[in-house]
Write a structure and sequence with these properties.
Helices cover about 40% and strands about 20% of the residues. It has a 7-stranded mixed sheet with strand order 3-2-1-4-5-7-6, sandwiched between helices. By secondary structure, it is α/β, with parallel strands linked by helices.
């Protein structure tokens, strides 16, 4: 299977994350378009349906924080920490959290997802949308996620699936049309840096993630998904006794 995948897919090219102000502005502007907004909302709905009804969320590669903030907006029983390598992105996320009135439940910080400074088995839900491809050691990221996620915690990771050789140009053109012309370079870079299903499956096994399934979605996305259960001993539940 891996040999066949190598034959039909172009070699992966590593991708830098969005960091320049003009790139970040283009990314933020693209969120107002119909397709990116729908894709984002679909991700949030899927995350909220994984069986965890409250607790702590970790958003890995949060960018401007919209995934985490939309989850908090729809469920007041969650708190969230968003992590990204870009200080500019984190500042934008903090500004948006304040504007949405969620500054007391959403916390954003610059950090390295390969070496997270969080306690083991701390988070009830871990999400990551279209960020896995930017890491040069994604197995370490998945292993860290496995460490900080509670044994019965839920997980949802989504990213592009690297297109086959003969599909690459068409998929880049389609993505550019959906996300806006200013995002074309980012879309191309992300697709060329994305993983195949076979690569993702191998990474999940190597990371030690248990009960996680790899699936394919429409519009050229792959997911790593795990259902979870609400933790009755969550500190968020416990604190209600003293309020």
């Amino acid at each position: 299977m891996r040999l066949l995948s190598r034959l039909i897919h172009p070699a992966r090219v590593e991708s830098p994350e969005l960091d320049r102000p003009d790139e970040i502005d283009a990314f933020i502007d693209s969120r107002s378009l119909e397709h990116p907004a729908k894709v984002e909302d679909d991700f949030v709905r899927r995350a909220l349906a994984l069986g965890v009804e409250g607790g702590m969320i970790l958003d890995v590669g949060t960018r401007v924080g919209l995934i985490a903030l939309k989850i908090l907006w729809q469920n007041e029983n969650f708190y969230a920490i968003g992590m990204d390598t870009s200080g500019i992105m984190i500042e934008r996320a903090r500004e948006t959290a304040t504007a949405w009135g969620l500054g007391e439940r959403a916390f954003f910080q610059v950090g390295d997802a390969r070496r997270m400074r969080f306690k083991t088995a701390y988070f009830d839900l871990v999400v990551s949308d279209s960020s896995l491809h930017v890491f040069n050691d994604p197995v370490s990221v998945l292993a860290e996620i496995n460490r900080v996620l509670k044994p019965k915690g839920a997980l949802l990771i989504r990213d592009f699936e690297r297109p086959r050789r003969f599909e690459m140009s068409r998929r880049i053109a389609e993505g550019s049309a959906r996300y806006g012309s200013r995002m074309r370079q980012h879309i191309e870079t992300a697709m060329r840096a994305a993983f195949t299903r076979a690569e993702i499956e191998e990474m999940v096994v190597a990371s030690g993630l248990e009960r996680a399934r790899v699936g394919r979605l429409e519009n050229g996305y792959l997911i790593i998904e795990r259902a979870g259960e609400t933790d009755p001993n969550s500190w968020i539940k416990a604190r209600e006794q003293y309020l």
